[in-house]
Write a structure and sequence with these properties.
Layout: H1 8-16, E1 24-28, H2 33-44, E2 48-53, H3 62-65, E3 72-77
Parallel strand pairs: 1-2, 2-3
């Protein structure tokens, strides 16, 4: 393996050694299915999780059902109300 590459065993070993404990993690899409799982998993590993996403589109959603918001340090929501500002002139 080249420099900087890691094996799956190294990745799992880092989880058990508290690799994410106290680390700041930024998760986009944390209100969606995959993002909610990731945010919850990182929170359980001790990370300080900040989420940025749209509001959940289904009710109930995994985000709501699993109480993912309780595991977040910060919860930012995006909106499409100002999308005209995103376009190039």
């Amino acid at each position: 393996m080249g420099k900087g590459e890691r094996t799956m065993e190294d990745l799992v070993k880092n989880f058990h050694e508290g690799f994410y404990a106290g680390r700041k993690c930024f998760v986009t899409g944390h209100t969606g299915f995959k993002g909610a799982w990731l945010a919850q998993w990182l929170g359980l590993l001790g990370a300080k999780v900040t989420g940025f996403a749209l509001d959940p589109i289904t009710h109930p959603s995994l985000f709501e059902s699993a109480h993912v918001a309780d595991m977040l340090e910060k919860d930012f929501r995006a909106t499409f109300a100002n999308t005209h500002c995103w376009r190039k002139p």
